[in-house]
Design a protein that fits this description.
Blueprint: H1 23-39, H2 55-62, E1 76-87, E2 91-98, E3 101-108, H3 109-112, H4 114-122, E4 129-138, E5 144-155, H5 171-176, H6 178-184, H7 186-208, E6 212-213, E7 219-220, E8 232-235, E9 240-244, H8 249-257, E10 262-270, E11 282-291, H9 295-313, E12 317-320, E13 323-326, E14 332-335, H10 336-344, H11 348-353, H12 357-363, H13 374-385, E15 394-400, E16 416-424, E17 427-434, H14 439-454, H15 465-472, E18 478-484, H16 485-492
Parallel strand pairs: 3-5, 6-10, 14-15
Antiparallel strand pairs: 1-2, 1-4, 2-3, 4-5, 7-9, 8-9, 10-11, 11-18, 12-13, 15-16, 16-17, 17-18
Helix pairs in contact: 6-7, 7-9, 14-15
């Protein structure tokens, strides 16, 4: 054990109970233990260990078992990381952890033999992985315990677990050393298990609806399909600049042209933007496209995806920031024009068309700089005046054409497109269109976006010639949907920071 291991007869200890010591000396002590093991011919890193049960499976199997006084006759084998040891001289109690489940083990000298017992006492440290074989029994306090008859070192830990490993709290450290966060806070493992259930539910719903899952390129000659600044890289062999994708849309719509009627992808996209509680430069996006459908069909699909995901991860009734949210369909449907009139007191979209957008923003005491593009001014008005009121799930319908270059013009409202965004708890979760399939209209709108980019708007849409050529071959009418999986995970798992539901979020360099 480390030089600060508990003395015989001392209470159960974890690293948080132990006096602090320089990290270098603790590592040096563990390397000495490692050398002693190898000198004895013991392989500290064997290739495998055949378990009969995981720790969780053992606890489940024996949870309600009426064990006789001497314990079970069934010999079991399990493995895990040593978290605590209570040395009682000729016997030791310890806890091992496998995933998020912990099991007490009992190691007795006259059962395992003097050599193994000495190894366990002297050369195995907190944090080491061990394999144990034995029988299950209950202690006087009724704790399920494995009476060890054979013990094998599986992996030597050369660094001690962090102080307070049973509750690592420093947020920056938790994100930077997620592996230790998982060891320290088992509930984090459960959180990411639920995230996995969420993604599985999204996939299952789409598969059940007849959608085909595909994969499209991450590296692209042009990064289109969204208003965002891309990351740029360079391909040595081709001697050309490439971009990490910012969306999945354009390639998936090319597949509609190719005859795939229902198609989707769940994958990482990359946007060279700020980092805050709602944004990470790489995030997971779901996009789905359905031929012969429109944005009304996409609303129904969105409700189905979210309500089934809520069932898979917990409940339709959730709480965020201390306020309840109900995810039971149908969700509210409200026109953007009506929301702006109600909460900003003016028809902001008409004001934009009349050239009065900036004046409206100033009248509402919102900051507007000369270089701020009109679409950003519009976003500021909407974000300040409307978003805080969108707590319960609400489809905001029918957006200005100026900020929706890939959506079909509204069939009855000039100047608008058939687009919705779904807001829940004040944040956007989904975005969908009746997809624009008129190649002439699409080319004109992309050319207008390209002109904005030339004027310095780095987030303007690009004119993707390969997509335009594909569209000229004919794309059926279609509805398209994008869901931010991380935003949805935050919502369903009750988290208020995107970093909590991304295993390895991007962080500033350590100072």
């Amino acid at each position: 054990m480390d030089s600060h291991a508990p003395k015989p007869g001392a209470p159960a200890a974890s690293t948080s109970d132990l006096p602090s010591a320089p990290l270098e000396s603790l590592i040096a002590q563990r390397r000495e233990n490692l050398k002693r093991l190898t000198d004895q011919g013991i392989n500290p890193y064997p290739y495998s260990y055949a378990r009969t049960h995981s720790v969780a499976a053992l606890l489940k199997e024996y949870a309600a078992a009426a064990l006789p006084e001497h314990g079970s006759d069934q010999v079991v084998r399990t493995a895990g990381r040593i978290l605590t040891v209570r040395d009682m001289g000729k016997s030791c109690f310890a806890h091992i952890m496998d995933g998020s489940a912990r099991l007490q083990i009992y190691v007795k000298k006259d059962v395992v033999g003097e050599n193994i017992y000495k190894l366990f006492q002297k050369d195995i440290d907190l944090g080491d992985f061990v394999g144990v074989e034995g029988t299950m029994f209950r202690t006087k306090t009724q704790e399920l315990t494995l009476r060890v008859s054979s013990l094998t070192l599986l992996a030597k830990s050369l660094r001690p677990l962090p102080e307070k490993f049973h509750g690592l709290k420093d947020v920056e450290t938790r994100y930077r050393e997620r592996e230790m966060d998982l060891v320290s806070n088992p509930e984090i493992l459960e959180l990411f298990a639920r995230r996995s259930q969420l993604i599985h539910s999204l996939r299952k719903t789409l598969h059940d609806e007849g959608f085909l899952e595909v994969e499209t390129p991450l590296l692209q000659a042009q990064a289109g399909g969204a208003a965002a600044r891309p990351f740029q890289t360079f391909h040595n062999t081709l001697q050309r600049n490439l971009y990490l994708r910012i969306a999945l849309e354009l390639h998936l719509k090319r597949l509609l042209v190719g005859g795939i009627d229902r198609v989707f992808e769940i994958g990482r996209v990359f946007r060279n933007e700020g980092v805050d509680t709602m944004h990470n430069p790489e995030f997971t996006l779901l996009e789905a496209y359905q031929a012969y459908a429109d944005y009304n069909d996409m609303m129904q699909l969105t409700e189905k995806l979210i309500t089934q995901a809520a069932t898979a991860t917990g409940s339709h009734e959730i709480t965020l920031h201390g306020k309840p949210v109900s995810l039971k369909p149908p969700f509210a449907r409200v026109g953007m024009t009506d929301l702006l009139k109600k909460h900003a007191g003016v028809d902001v979209i008409q004001a934009w068309h009349d050239g009065r957008l900036r004046q409206i923003a100033k009248d509402l005491n919102l900051p507007v700089e000369d270089r701020t593009p009109d679409h950003k001014v519009f976003d500021r008005i909407f974000d300040a005046k409307v978003k805080p009121h969108l707590w319960q799930p609400t489809f905001v319908l029918d957006y200005p054409i100026e900020i929706s270059p890939l959506a079909k013009k509204h069939r009855s409202q000039p100047g608008l497109v058939e687009r919705f965004e779904l807001f829940i708890a004040g944040d956007e979760v989904a975005n969908a269109y009746s997809e624009l399939n008129d190649p002439i209209d699409q080319r004109e709108r992309m050319e207008k976006q390209a002109a904005l980019k030339q004027k310095g708007d780095e987030e303007a849409e690009i004119a993707d010639e390969s997509f335009l050529v594909a569209l000229e071959h004919g794309m059926p009418p279609a509805g398209g949907l994008g869901i931010g999986v991380d935003r949805l995970a935050m919502l369903l798992l009750g988290q208020t920071s995107i970093r909590e539901i991304i295993l390895f979020p991007l962080l500033k360099p350590e100072s």
